[in-house]
């Protein structure tokens, strides 16, 4: 158990809908990262937050947004869903801003299926 | 274009064999990570490297910054090592993460 929790574990929805994925980092970790893993694209970095502020942005679509709250949990919002958004979404946390210098701890993932 | 290339894509080994997985990258990096993903989907970080070599149990990871290359070695492989091993780098410009496509390892008893 990494100490990172993600809810829900599974989510099935329809095209055009909007969903929210939630992540609670390990106690004391200030950085949260979101990743998408699809069969055709592999793992992709979406976005990083540190202590409530956006710090790095990867291949995140404009239909997607994220935030980190004062209690450090983070939410990833996916809207106008398309079939291609079906994927595993992972959250990871690390103690500091410079995750290049710290190990990341991954949550179990949320499997999103868009029908 | 892939910023991170891994080889081999698939690897089957007999229990006890020495295994090497290679990772080459094309960007300047602040660190390189080796991740392990089990069949159930969970991801575990094995190593974070910015130089040299690290060892944890039967696993050894090395990096050559000049050659932009890293290797993950598994000594005395065991069926429980069967997983997908993923190389990831954090670029030193823009703080982006780039991932290899993974090496699927199967260790046969």
Which descriptors apply to this entry?
heterodimer; A: 115 residues; mainly beta; 7-stranded mixed sheet; 4-stranded antiparallel sheet; 11 strands; 0% helix; globular; B: 109 residues; 6-stranded mixed sheet; 5-stranded antiparallel sheet
Can you walk me through this structure?
Chain A is mainly β. Helices cover 0% and strands 52% of the residues of chain A. Chain A is built from no helices and eleven strands. In chain A, strands 2, 4, 5, 6, 9, 10 and 11 form a seven-stranded mixed β-sheet that branches. A four-stranded antiparallel β-sheet of chain A has the order 1-3-8-7, with no helix packed on it. In chain A, strand 4 (31-38) and strand 5 form a beta hairpin. Chain A is globular and about 35 Å long. Chain A starts with a strand and ends with a strand. Helices cover 0% and strands 61% of the residues of chain B. Chain B has no helices and eleven strands. In chain B, the strands form two sheets. In chain B, strands 2, 4, 5, 9, 10 and 11 form a six-stranded mixed β-sheet that branches. Chain B has a five-stranded antiparallel β-sheet with strand order 1-3-8-7-6, with no helix packed on it. In chain B, a hairpin with a 5-residue loop joins strand 9 (83-91) and strand 10 (97-99). The radius of gyration of chain B is 13 Å and the shape is globular. The N and C termini of chain B lie far apart (37 Å). The mean pLDDT of chain B is 94.
């Amino acid at each position: 158990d990494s100490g990172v929790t993600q809810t829900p574990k599974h989510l099935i929805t329809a095209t055009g809908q909007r969903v929210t994925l939630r992540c609670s980092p390990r106690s004391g970790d200030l950085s949260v990262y979101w990743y998408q893993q699809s069969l055709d694209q592999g793992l992709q970095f979406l976005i990083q937050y540190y202590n409530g502020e956006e710090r790095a942005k990867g291949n995140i679509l404009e239909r997607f947004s994220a935030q980190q709250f004062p209690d450090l949990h983070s939410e990833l919002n996916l809207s106008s869903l398309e079939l291609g958004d079906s994927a595993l979404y992972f959250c990871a946390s690390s103690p500091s801003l410079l995750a290049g210098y710290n190990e990341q701890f991954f949550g179990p993932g949320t499997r999103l299926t868009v029908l | 274009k892939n910023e991170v290339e891994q080889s081999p894509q698939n690897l089957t080994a007999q229990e006890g064999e020495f295994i090497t997985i290679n990772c080459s990258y094309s960007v300047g990096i602040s660190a390189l990570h080796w991740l392990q993903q089990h069949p159930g989907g969970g991801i575990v970080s094995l190593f974070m490297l910015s130089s040299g070599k690290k060892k944890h149990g039967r696993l050894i990871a090395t990096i050559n910054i000049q050659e932009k290359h890293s290797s993950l070695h598994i000594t005395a492989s065991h069926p429980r090592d069967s997983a997908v091993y993923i190389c990831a780098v954090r670029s030193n410009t823009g703080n982006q993460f780039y991932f290899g496509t993974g090496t699927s390892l199967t260790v046969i008893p």
